[in-house]
Amino acid sequence: MRLAICDEQWLFSSVLSTALAQQGHEVVLTTDEPAVLMSRATESRPDICVIDVVETYAVAVAGFLAGLDDPPAVVLLTDVCQDGVWEAYEQGLIRGVVNKACAFPVLMNTLDRVAGGERVSEGWQIPGQRQDHGVVDALTGRELEVLRLVVRGHSTQEMADRLGVSRHTVRTHVQQILRKLGVHGRGKIARAAEAAGLVDAAVLSSGGRPV
């Protein structure tokens, strides 16, 4: 499908575009400027726009795109849900909301489902709704960070140094993750996270460390 990528971090936009192109998608626009996305959306004719625009109000960008003659679907790939996101989701202005902590295959699946006409939320709890994967959605942003570091094989001290917190705080986060995933022991976190779609199998096959 034809995709436009707009993330205010240019490096992330570029890497994501490359990854999606490698999966056979046609990336017709890659930018870190929401204004460029809005001005070029008509000529580039994307089927789906994948955006994360925090400084420029994401809902406003989605509303602008929805007003085009041939509007693309909007998928918000973000670790921060601004005010109004869920209202826009219910209205169909935003068709997908994916937490950046989710694994790449989760995004791929979301794009396919959105292209098929679904509304999709992954890695977020929709206010007022109960979801089958609510245990995973209950993880906080910081817990998701710790989860991914655990899966990549970082020690408690390494995680504490990376996050700028104490070892005790890291242990507390790990205990919360274990409780919410319903597993016992760090060794089981990786498989539970993979089953929940939060990490790639490739990370696990590489021994936990990123390849």
TrEMBL record:
Signal peptide: none annotated. Coiled coil: none annotated. InterPro entries: CheY-like_superfamily, Sig_transdc_resp-reg_C-effctor, Tscrpt_reg_LuxR_C, WH-like_DNA-bd_sf. SUPFAM superfamilies: C-terminal effector domain of the bipartite response regulators, CheY-like. Residues 132-197 form the HTH luxR-type domain. Keywords: DNA-binding, Transcription, Transcription regulation. Pfam families: GerE (PF00196). The keyword Transmembrane does not apply. This is Response regulator transcription factor. It comes from Kribbella koreensis.
